[in-house]
Structure formats: C-alpha cells, structure tokens
Design brief:
The protein has 288 residues and is of the alpha/beta class. It has helices spanning 28-36, 49-58, 102-112, 128-135, 139-145, 160-172, 192-214, 236-241, 271-282, and strands spanning 2-10, 41-44, 65-67, 72-76, 88-90, 93-97, 120-122, 152-156, 176-179, 184-187, 221-230, 244-249, 264-270. The protein is globular and about 65 Å long.
Length: 288
C-alpha cells in the first residue's frame, strides 16, 4: 500500500507575492488550509536569508526554505529526526550549501565586468535608497535584499545583444547567469530545481522512517508528489523537476518556455490570486 505525501515549492516575487505590492493576502486562506492539512510549503526564491527571516514570519511558515536561486537550503533544526548529511549548523538551522560564496562572484565581476562598463549595475554597488527606488521595497527591505551570501543580482542597462554577450562571457568563466522577474542573477551552478530535489529526498526519507515506526504490523510505503509554482525564467529548473508544474501568470512578461508537457498548468490570474487558484484546484480533496 502506498501513501502519497505532497510538498509545495513556491517562488515568491510575482508568484506568492504580488509583483507590484509584494503582498500575499489573496493566498492567506489557502496557506492556512495547507498548514492544517500538514502539507509543507517550501519557499524557493532568489531572495536572501535576511529577507526570508521576515517573510516566513509574515506568512506564518515554520518549514525549510531555499535562498538565492537554489544556493542554499535552510532547515529548522528538528524538522527531521536527525541532521541531514553534508549540512552544517547555522543558528537555529541545518544548512546545505550548493555553490561558492558571493565574494568569488563579486571578484569575477570586478575584473571581467570592466568589458561591459556602463551596461549593468549590481546590488552591491547600489545604496539602500537606490535599490528601494528601483524595486519599490522599503529601505529596511532593500537593506535585507543587499545581504547576499552566494550571488549578485544585476540590473541590466544595456541592449539585448550586449546582454547575451555578457551572459555567455560569464558562463565561459564558470558562472551561472539566470533571468529573474526583475534582475539577472550571477552565481554558481546551482538552481532551484537541484535544491528542491535534494530537500524532497530528505522529506521522503523522513516520511519513510516515520511510517516504518508507526506501522509495525503492515507495510505502508510513502511516496512523494512535488508541486512547484513560479513565474520567471529562474523558476524553470524547479518547474521542470517537479511532479506537477504551475506557471503563474505575470503582468510584465510571458510564460517562460518549458520542455515538459504533462502535468503542467498556467494560471489565468496573476500572482497570489493565481497561486491560490492553482492550489485549490490541485488539492481540492485535501483542503476541504
């Protein structure tokens, strides 16, 4: 006998958070229902640890989360019975890192970015007030957004042709460059999909261990169903790797192309409205 356990992996900006207001009010009821149904919601975002600390409190989440486009997974200590292999203790979290720290990528930009001077501006070169003006964030949130640990978001100022040359040049030098909802993100070869799959495996091992301990007389083998939701190109790896992919409609760009065809949906509503619409449709039996 098999028991299906569902886990939701969600982007933030333009997905669970509105692209313009950064609000998630339209998804609040669905989030509460998911918590009651014991279905984990894992934030998988380009945002920093400093930003996520505040957001997870606002969303009333106590689950693991993935930062900076898959660069690291933060797991609250005690989520699983034992500490996962290849993680380190950082404060109240077990942390799994997937790439080199931000200093490496800033050094690369400092030397190789000179060829593209005037075509881009990185987060590290912006003041909090400049970033707040550019993104609509508060000064406090902009300060948190600048606390990068693994990569550098870039505002591209040049034309598309030069942008392609820049991206290919950085890739040749060992960097990974992905397009987010607003910015290019330069860092190591990690992505939201890789981090999602690693964390999903930890959950599956946890569910199997719990099931074995609780069912001594008969065998119940848990299986996992991952549901991923995102709106940007930097969500593509996560969407491709999930069992079910949900593309959230964006007010500023088209749906990014996916190779997969099966178990893929596109919402008719934007941001958190589309997020809630999709979850309610997919999990109607679990949330009633």
């Amino acid at each position: 006998m098999s028991q299906i356990k569902r886990i939701i992996f969600s982007d933030l900006d333009g997905t669970l958070l509105d692209h313009y207001t950064y609000q998630s009010i339209a998804a609040s009821e669905t989030l509460a229902q998911l918590k009651s149904a014991d279905i984990p919601v894992i934030l998988n975002t380009s945002k920093t640890y400093a930003e996520l600390e505040t957001i997870i409190q606002d969303l009333q989440l106590d689950t693991p989360f993935i930062i900076e486009n898959g660069a690291a997974v933060y797991i609250p200590i005690g989520t699983f019975a034992s500490q996962p292999d290849d993680t380190k203790v950082v404060g109240k979290y077990w942390v799994k890192s997937f790439c080199l720290p931000v200093a490496h990528w800033l050094s690369l930009l400092s030397t190789e970015g000179k060829k593209f001077s005037g075509n881009f501006q990185g987060f590290s070169a912006m003041s909090e007030s400049e970033l707040a003006l550019l993104t609509g964030l508060s000064i406090e949130d902009a300060e948190r957004a600048k606390q990068r640990q693994y990569g550098e978001p870039i505002q591209w100022l040049g034309d598309e042709e030069t942008k392609d040359v820049f991206i290919n040049h950085m890739i040749d030098l060992g960097a990974n460059v992905v397009q987010g909802g607003r910015f290019l993100h330069l860092g190591g070869y990690c992505d939201k999909g890789q981090a999602m799959l690693w964390l999903a495996e930890q959950y599956l091992e946890h569910y199997i261990a719990c099931s074995s301990a609780a069912n001594q007389s008969h065998v119940v083998t848990p299986s996992l169903c991952t549901i991923a939701l995102g709106d940007g190109e930097n969500d593509t790896a996560m969407l491709e790797a999930a069992d079910i992919a949900v593309q959230i409609k964006s007010p500023v760009h088209d749906f990014p192309s996916l190779h997969r065809q099966k178990m893929t949906t596109q919402t008719s509503l934007y941001g958190p409205e589309g997020w809630a619409e999709a979850i309610q449709s997919l999990l109607v039996e679990q949330l009633t």
